[in-house]
TrEMBL record, chains A, B:
Sequence ranges assigned to domain CBS in this UniProt record: 200-258
Originating organism: Aestuariirhabdus litorea
Topology term for the membrane: Multi-pass membrane protein
Protein family membership: Belongs to the SLC41A transporter family.
Membrane-spanning intervals of the chain: 282-302, 308-335, 356-377, 383-409, 421-444
Name assigned to this protein: Magnesium transporter
Coiled-coil positions: none
Disordered as annotated region, ranges: 1-21
Gene3D superfamilies (alphabetical): 1.20.50.50, CBS-domain, SLC41 divalent cation transporters, integral membrane domain
Length: 445, 445
């Protein structure tokens, strides 16, 4: 099997400067643009730009398109206006949509002026859809024929080089409306004079341009086809989504879930400039700081208690941690469930019951374990009792919020993967400290 | 656009019991097995079993295969030996490999006895590979011909119903060795007597059966082909990996990253039985409890200090939280980088420098902000100084461990997504509390 990316990176780090362009060519040759884009992303920005300029200019556009947003922007920012113009001149409408947001308005307009009418129309039609709709990102590279065409017309079309991932021809009527999909594989067996419209695959339903990106990706995967057509509200063919596109969409959907938990997004550059990264991450630290101060404020309510029973201060991390961990387990399950559309109002009550059941069992067990340890450590069964109750209450509160917080956020169209953990931590910290120190104040003084 | 899964779940919850089988049929009809599997996963176990028995038995095997491991096991456990035997009897070798681990040995052996020799051979060849190698999960449903075959032979093959996702024919020589791939789309244009071996696509390299699952998925995506052949060490054709399989492998790779952060895995059942879930999650809570007690122990070293300066106890969550959040940002970036093979020894030093740079900037800024707040809150500039130093040190320590811990774990073949956060939290809690309380003891008493 051929070399994996990390092996290339290691080899690259030992390659003399003068031989690096040759290694880049080799990677491009053997694995294609996606891999070279990943390799560039894995380089510090200085080196990335050095290598970028050694890539043949006719390959650059295709590689730029494959890169994650932030890494791509690091290159766009470093190019001179002339270099940028030359690069953007190579893009088609679909590419331009993809990266248009990172380009100065004037560059986009300039590129549009140099496009032919068809590409300009593609560009404008795509812009009718927003960044979360598949209509914005359709592939225009496909086979289509008028509905009146015959098998022999299709045969002629199929003798030319085919767009990648082609297993069907899309038919349209005189007013440009989508009529249906004909699978190419069955055309072999049919006489040339047969009308294609008699061979339409009734199972192959087109996607709406308004479909959400991941839903579109899932539909392509479930269809069993290599691509699905996408139509607008008037049923006109906008383009298609291939299984390859679906895989890219799926990846960015899941990368986003992963990164959002730490307040970042899927476009985050591994080697973003320090100041840019600092600024972005500072926001997340700031939001979490508010949470932490809320926890501090809760503790502050019990200063007098803490002064008298310092053991409570020592045990605080245990109460907070158990609630936080239990909550994050439920939250993670919910985030995945919401992402896969497996969680909904229809099964919410059952889910809540199940998670509260688990919390009941684990709350009880760990309350007991921790009670014994704390009682022995501080030679005080009362401290054991206090922490036992706090742990049990906190784990149950964590499960309840772990289910409800992401559900409510999702309902409000706020990303639960991004905001869920901050809110959940606030709940488990505040509830945990309040119950623990409050009980301590009541029972231990 | 057709209904999404969560809409089906909602509708399902309002469907009278007697009409539910009809809704299930409709979902299967319109969206296929994957969607029905997702729907079953989204049901509490009792309901899942009720619905399972209303699925026509000839469809059950295909649906079972699509389900996540734990949900699938919930069904297998609930079936009688006769029901299980009937179900397993419908599986082919590839399916049996996929779910074999959840079946009693006797059931597997029984199923093998009823298979024909070819399927049995597939089964045994697959078992030469482990659960992380693509050779175990190859698709045997493909087109192949002897290398001596001609275009007319291929034409005959292509007139029959094709396996899904077919864009090429695989050639093998007399000793069964893989010779190469011929793209089906170019065969139209060629006269029937041409030898297929003259048309081999030299770019289409086969995968090794030993390739790691996600690497294989990436290779299929990068290849531009609909599927890649997989060969064994003697270059014999084992089967193929389609773009559809690649998408499934990619999804489970990323789901695993997501779930591992909370000590779960991608097979976790949304509606696992309470006791089973409790037991699994208890392990993770227990491991994290050790971490929490280590933090408590660190605090315990400074009991005397805390008694005198209770403000320190109040501010402890701020120190722990800032370190934890900063660390989790670096860790998340590293986990993605390692998963995409973008992080390696070759760029480790650059990464470490960059993350320490960010930590320096953010450490300084937040140390200042928090110092001001703490000084005012407790009317003590010294407390401000103490927490400022603790915050800055902890954020830098978090960045350092955020890079190094996952790197070392990966090197030791321990999943950094699973263990990374526990270790990182230990570091940030212990370092944070030690520096904060230690300085407090030195400067405030």
């Amino acid at each position: 099997m051929s070399e994996e990316l990390n092996e290339t990176i290691d080899r690259f780090s030992h390659t003399p400067e003068t031989d690096k362009p040759a290694v880049m060519d080799e990677v491009l040759e053997e694995f294609g643009e996606t891999r070279l884009a990943l390799l560039l992303e894995a380089m510090p920005i200085d080196e990335r730009m050095l290598r970028w300029h050694s890539i043949p200019s006719e390959e650059q556009a295709a590689i730029l398109i494959e890169m994650r947003g932030d890494a791509r922007n690091s290159i766009i920012r470093a190019l001179s206006p002339e270099q940028l113009e030359r690069l953007i001149g190579q893009l088609d409408a679909q590419d331009l949509i993809e990266i248009g947001d990172s380009l100065p308005q004037s560059v986009v307009e300039d590129a549009l002026e140099h496009m032919d009418a068809e590409q300009r129309e593609y560009f404008e039609r795509s812009l009718q859809y927003n960044e979360e709709q598949i209509g914005r990102y359709v592939d225009h590279n496909l086979l289509m024929l008028p509905a009146a065409a015959r098998v022999q017309d299709a045969d002629r079309l199929l003798r030319r080089p085919l767009p990648p991932y082609t297993d069907s021809i899309y038919l349209f009527d005189r007013s440009g409306r989508f009529q249906g999909t004909v699978s190419t594989s069955q055309l072999f067996t049919l006489p040339g004079h047969i009308h294609l419209s008699t061979q339409i695959d009734e199972d192959a339903e087109p996607l709406s341009g308004e479909a959400e990106l991941y839903a579109a990706a899932t539909a392509v995967q479930e269809s069993g086809a290599m691509a699905l057509p996408v139509v607008d509200e008037q049923n006109r063919l906008l383009g298609r989504v291939t299984l390859h596109d679906a895989m890219v969409l799926q990846q960015s959907h899941f990368e986003n879930l992963l990164m959002a938990r730490a307040g970042m997004n899927e476009e985050e550059d591994l080697f973003a400039p320090v100041l840019r990264s600092s600024r972005r991450r500072a926001t997340w630290l700031g939001i979490n700081l508010l949470t932490a101060f809320l926890a501090s404020w809760t503790i502050g309510l019990f200063e007098a208690t803490l002064q008298q029973v310092v053991a409570l201060a020592v045990l605080m991390p245990v109460v907070a941690s158990m609630g936080g961990i239990a909550g994050s387990q439920t939250l993670t399950l919910m985030i995945r469930g919401l992402a896969l559309k497996q969680v909904s109002r229809g099964n919410l009550v059952s889910l809540l019951k199940k998670e509260l059941g688990i919390a009941g069992v684990n709350g009880l067990i760990w309350a007991l374990v921790i009670a014994v340890i704390a009682s022995v450590w501080f030679s005080s069964p009362l401290i054991g009792l206090v922490i036992a109750i706090a742990i049990a209450v906190n784990i149950v509160a964590a499960a309840f919020s772990g289910v409800m917080v992401p559900m409510v956020l999702d309902h409000l169209k706020i990303d639960p993967a991004l905001s869920g953990s901050v809110i959940l931590t606030t709940v488990t910290d505040v509830v945990g400290f309040f119950v623990f120190l409050g009980l301590g104040a009541l029972l231990l003084i």
